[in-house]
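Sequence of LysR family transcriptional regulator (Paracoccus cavernae).
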Amino acid sequence: MRISDYTLRNLRTFCAVVEHGGFGGAQAVLGASQAAISTHLKDLETTLGFTLCQRGRAGFTVTAKGAEVYAEAKRMLGVMETCEANLGTLRRVLTGHLRIGIVDSEVDNPDLPVHLALRRFFTREQQVRLTVEVGTTEALSKGLQTGDIHVAVGPFPTRHANIDYRPVWVEDHQLYCGLNHPLFDRPAAEITPKRFRAMR
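Predicted 3D structure, token representation.
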């Protein structure tokens, strides 16, 4: 079959739906409505001539042929991204697809410098397609290991040997206690680690 630009778009949509377990999870990543995503999948199924996934009250499941299409699509899209990046290097212009993950608890953190880094990035001459994915620490760690995410930002208490960790900011934490707590009205100088240990 001939792979057109529309087919590539539909394959990217299908991959996002598979990776996020359905339409809802893929919406934020694709920036598309459920109706648009459904249309893309129907068009792809019509082009291929078979069903890729089952969707309904029982949930979202990928068919056997759908799983094969997903594997082929990921392989092809990966090769295309590598080609785009290599050609961009020859032109001395950044190209490709940059996938960034942010831990869900840090999305609304005003002190997180990610938005400043992205602003500086977009002032440079580049032709990069950017995707920002929000998820849990576990999900983003898995994405880093599989290559589905290029870089992730957030607290990662569990370290994996095949991931490179670098500090980008320091977040201050404080302890609070209620009105009826024994330490509520104590002077700050008396609230020491030794006193905390004695209260266990």
